[in-house]
Amino acid sequence: MLDLDTLIAFIRGAQHEIVWINEREDIEVSRNWSDIKQLDLPMLQNYYKQLLHEIELREPRFNDVHNKGAALLNQGHPAIHVIEFYLNAMQRKWDWLLALSKCLEQHLRDALNLNSFMEDANTAEEWMVKQSEMLERKYSRSEFSLEEGEQMLRELDEISELIKKYHSILMTLTERSSQISPLWQRGERTQRPISIVALADYTDITIREGKGERRENEK
């Protein structure tokens, strides 16, 4: 009877831990990173910090349940296969949650970089449109006085200097663009293989990927 009671207590504890992990796993695997405009980045930053805090607080409880299961094995409990099943499931789920937290960290960093890049690119585009409209409006006249012509030349010199400064800004944006992770492609159907790098170890029925491995995705 004691063997059954200890087994039930362990299984209940293990199931609670697995359910707790599954709830957080479901949030991450269903998160849509492809539309940057729909992401609440400040909220995600807070959520990431909260998730790490929750994991830190949960770890002692998780370890306690896991250790109780391991102790049952060491004591020669007759339900060895059931205990091993739950111990393996717990460890696999815990490792996966830690991997997902790393993925969340990287995706959040990529999203923040993309958002910052888009804001800077939009600012540069607005400035260029504004200058183009101003040049067309102010300097398209074919008749003007000598004094007006001299004034326009001075203004054009100033605009030329501004354009040179913005050229360096545009070059910087071009360099930054090569470092931007194409999150938007996550929501697109690709027409050709794309090189990807695994952020975490991942295994399912049809695929096995190791962290840091590079491969071509499927269409």
Average pLDDT, to the nearest integer?
Answer: 84
Taking the sheet with the most strands, its summary is:
2 strands, antiparallel
CATH fold assignment of the domain at 2-116: Methane Monooxygenase Hydroxylase, Chain G, domain 1
Compute the gyration radius: what is it? 29 Å
CATH class of the domain at 2-116 reads: Mainly Alpha
What is the molecular shape?
A: rod-shaped
Q: Total strand count, please?
A: 4
Known CATH architecture of the domain at 2-116: Up-down Bundle
Low-confidence stretches: none
What is the terminal separation in angstroms? 56 Å
Percent of residues in beta strands = under 5%
Q: Please list the strands of the largest sheet in the order they lie side by side.
A: 1-4
SSE order: HHHHEEEE
Total helix count? Answer: 4
- Structural category is mainly alpha
